[in-house]
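Fill in residues.
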C-alpha cells in the first residue's frame, strides 16, 4: 500500500509539474452565457443540472464521438504537454485526434470546451419549480457560465430539440457580439465598432454603457449586464 501511495503521489506531482511548465492559456475571448431551460418532466431538468455540475453539459446534449478521444480542458493541455516529449510520429497521431474533437465541438457545439473551464470565470446553477395557470407543474434551471470565443448555439438548439423550453443570453465583449437564443431562433448582433467610435454626435465619443443597452436591448442587459462590460 505505501508503495502504491508513493507511485500515485509521483504521478500527481508529474502532472502538476507538466501544468506548471505548460499552463493552459487564459482564453482571449470570454463569452458569457446564461441559459434558462424549462420542462414539465422534472427528471429531465435534474439530469441536465447533474451534467452541468459534473462539467459535462455540452457533451450530455451532443456527445463527442469516442473516436475523437474527447478530454477535459486540463487533461487536454496536459496531454499536449506530454506529447512534446514523445517521438514525432506519435505526436502527429495525437495531434490528429486532438484536432478531431476540437473540430467536432466547434462544428456541433459552437465552442471548444464544456462548462467548468477553470481559466474563464465561474459557473453557477439555480433551479425552481412552479405551476402554470392551468395547474401544469414545471421545473426550471438557470445556468450561468463562460465559453471560449463563441456561445454554444448548437447545444442550445439540441436542448430545444430535446423538448425543453430554452432561452439563452450570450455576450462576448471583445468582439462586441451578443444575442438571445429563444426556442430555436437565434438573434445575434455584432457591434459595429467604427460606427460607435465616432459617437452619436460625431465628436469622437467612445462606445459607452448607455449605447450598449440601447444597441443590444434591455432584455440582454437585464440578464448579463452588458452595460457594465468593457468593449475595446
Amino acid at each position: 500500500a505505501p508503495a502504491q501511495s508513493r507511485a500515485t503521489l509521483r504521478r500527481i506531482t508529474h502532472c502538476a509539474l507538466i501544468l506548471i511548465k505548460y499552463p493552459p492559456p487564459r482564453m482571449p475571448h470570454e463569452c458569457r452565457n446564461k441559459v434558462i431551460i424549462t420542462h414539465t418532466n422534472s427528471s429531465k431538468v435534474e439530469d441536465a443540472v447533474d451534467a452541468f455540475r459534473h462539467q459535462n453539459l455540452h457533451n450530455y446534449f451532443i456527445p463527442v464521438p469516442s473516436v475523437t478521444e474527447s478530454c477535459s480542458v486540463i487533461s487536454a493541455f496536459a496531454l499536449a504537454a506530454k506529447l512534446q516529449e514523445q517521438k514525432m510520429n506519435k505526436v502527429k497521431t495525437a495531434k490528429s485526434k486532438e484536432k478531431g474533437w476540437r473540430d467536432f465541438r466547434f462544428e456541433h457545439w459552437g465552442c471548444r470546451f464544456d462548462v467548468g473551464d477553470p481559466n474563464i470565470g465561474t459557473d453557477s446553477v439555480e433551479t425552481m419549480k412552479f405551476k402554470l395557470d392551468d395547474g401544469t407543474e414545471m421545473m426550471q434551471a438557470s445556468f450561468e457560465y463562460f465559453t471560449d470565443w463563441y456561445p454554444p448555439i448548437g447545444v442550445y438548439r439540441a436542448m430545444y430539440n430535446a423538448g425543453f423550453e430554452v432561452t439563452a443570453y450570450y455576450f462576448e465583449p471583445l468582439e462586441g457580439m451578443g444575442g438571445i437564443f429563444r426556442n430555436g431562433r437565434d438573434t445575434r448582433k455584432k457591434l459595429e465598432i467604427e460606427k460607435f467610435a465616432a459617437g452619436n454626435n460625431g465628436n469622437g465619443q467612445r462606445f459607452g454603457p448607455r449605447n450598449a443597452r440601447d444597441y443590444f436591448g434591455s432584455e440582454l442587459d437585464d440578464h448579463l449586464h452588458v452595460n457594465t462590460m468593457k468593449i475595446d
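The chain has a mean pLDDT of 75.
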